[in-house]
């Protein structure tokens, strides 16, 4: 008999609202997550302390672990510390770094992981991928996606606005990544998972078309939901294809070539997406991207994040090497340095006018 449906790996609880943190203890007591109340909570030594003070009385069965940084070493250390202590689950309380370290550590010891995101900087908050710094720079590791996802809008509003902006760039870039995926389907016959594409596109379009901004709750809810949907889209496709294409290759190139000066992930992938749209011969889409990014205070030109034109061209040229095997508009066009220079000049002229 053919398979009638398929199960989607996804969190058993998604709680996005003001005050969600106050009910975290109740959520964790859910029998599906923690029957005994014995939990490991990972957080940063800096900004995490205030949250620990607030939550410790509500979680009497929790042990608290401070995570030093976003390296694979920190993740392995956390796994070693929590191993064999009979926890029901591991809770990550923090931003992307803490969540990625915790995802990896939880996978290593075979425990479910609860994601409590304190900012909306990127789509890793609910994804099956842990991005960690290692000896070779940065690596992406496949892990189970979180069993529960909590986003308290009161906490998000307290985080610097640049973290929200970064999340906007990351969700909008889905649309560029999907165009790359569909291009590869046309040229190479690569399979596009229609459900993963639908979720990633809905997430990207909802943020791109929303009239609100970082200061209003309706917009924050749409953005938070878009990040969660994007994470689930990655779980469905089994890779980062629905949310990562030329936009991300360009951003990875910035990270590798200029590690000390790189801007935030969302700033770089948003700029990369607008430029990739231009390369596709979609000037209206590129213009719409640029308008939306500008409206939210995100960069649209390399100079907006302190890079010269030559540095940007070098990053675009280097970009395909960051994800060997991934086919995007960059691999398709295979531009020479001079062609990239001409394309950039055209892009800058188009979005300035
Ligand atoms: Zn991303």
Question: Would you kindly provide a written description of the structure presented here, covering whatever features stand out?
Answer:
- This protein is an alpha/beta fold and 353 residues long.
- It has 2 domains: 13-158, 3-Layer(aba) Sandwich (Rossmann fold); 161-352, Dehydroquinate synthase-like, alpha domain (Up-down Bundle), CATH 1.20.1090.10.
- Helices cover 51% and strands 13% of the residues.
- It has helices at 24-28, 48-55, 72-82, 96-109, 153-158, 161-188, 194-209, 217-237, 246-257, 265-279, 283-295, 309-318, 329-333, 337-352, and strands at residues 13-17, 39-44, 62-67, 89-94, 113-117, 129-134, 137-142, 148-152.
- Strands 1-8-5-4-2-3 form a 6-stranded parallel sheet, with helices on both faces.
- Helix 2 links the parallel strand 2 (39-44) and strand 3 (62-67).
- Helix 10 (265-279) runs antiparallel to helix 11 (283-295).
- The longest helix has 28 residues, at 161-188.
- The radius of gyration is 20 Å and the shape is globular.
- The model has no long low-confidence stretch (mean pLDDT 95).
- Bound molecules: zinc ion.
- This is Putative glycerol 1-phosphate dehydrogenase.
- Its EC number is 1.1.1.261.
- GO terms for molecular function: glycerol-1-phosphate dehydrogenase [NAD(P)+] activity; metal ion binding.
CATH topology description of the largest domain? Dehydroquinate synthase-like, alpha domain
- Terminal CA distance: 58 Å
Average of pLDDT: 95
**Class from helix and strand fractions:** alpha/beta
What coarse outline follows from CA principal-axis ratios? globular
Main beta sheet strand tally, sense and closure? 6 strands, parallel
CATH class of the largest domain: Mainly Alpha
How many helices? The count is: 14
| Low-pLDDT residue intervals, each spanning 5 or more residues | none
Q: Going across the major beta sheet, what is the strand order? A: 1-8-5-4-2-3
Rg from Cα? 20 Å
Helix percentage range = 40-55%
What's the CATH architecture name of the largest domain?
Up-down Bundle
Counting structural domains, the number is 2
């Amino acid at each position: 008999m053919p398979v009638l449906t398929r199960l989607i790996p996804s969190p058993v609880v998604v709680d996005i609202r003001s005050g969600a943190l106050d009910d975290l203890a109740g959520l964790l007591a859910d029998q599906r997550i923690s029957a005994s109340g014995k939990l490991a909570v990972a957080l940063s030594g800096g900004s995490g302390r205030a949250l620990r003070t607030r939550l410790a009385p509500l979680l009497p069965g929790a042990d608290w672990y401070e995570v030093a940084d976003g390296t694979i070493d920190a993740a392995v250390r956390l796994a070693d510390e929590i191993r064999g202590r009979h926890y029901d689950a591991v809770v990550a309380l923090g931003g992307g770094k803490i969540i990625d370290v915790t995802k990896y550590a939880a996978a290593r010891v075979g425990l479910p992981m609860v994601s409590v995101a304190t900012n909306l900087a990127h789509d890793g908050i609910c994804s099956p991928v842990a991005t960690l710094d290692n000896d070779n720079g940065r690596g992406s590791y496949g892990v189970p996606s979180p069993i529960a996802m909590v986003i308290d809008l009161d906490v998000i509003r307290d985080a610097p606005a640049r973290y929200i902006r970064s999340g906007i760039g990351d969700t909008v870039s889905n649309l560029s990544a999907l165009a790359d995926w569909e291009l590869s389907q046309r040229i190479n016959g690569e399979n596009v998972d229609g459900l993963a594409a639908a979720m990633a596109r809905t997430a990207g379009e909802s943020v791109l078309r929303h009239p609100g901004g970082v200061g209003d709750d309706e917009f924050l809810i749409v953005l938070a939901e878009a990040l969660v949907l994007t994470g689930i889209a990655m779980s469905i496709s089994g890779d980062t294809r629905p949310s990562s294409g030329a936009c991300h290759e360009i951003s990875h190139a910035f990270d590798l070539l200029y590690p000390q000066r790189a801007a935030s992930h969302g700033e770089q992938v948003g700029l990369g997406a607008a430029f990739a749209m231009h390369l596709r011969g979609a000037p209206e889409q590129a213009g719409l991207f640029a308008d939306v990014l500008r409206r939210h205070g995100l960069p649209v030109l390399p100079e907006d994040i302190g890079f010269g034109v030559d540095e940007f061209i070098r990053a675009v040229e280097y970009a395909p090497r960051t994800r060997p095997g991934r086919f995007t508009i960059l691999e398709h066009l295979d531009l020479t340095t001079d062609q990239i220079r001409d394309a950039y000049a055209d892009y800058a002229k188009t979005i300035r006018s």
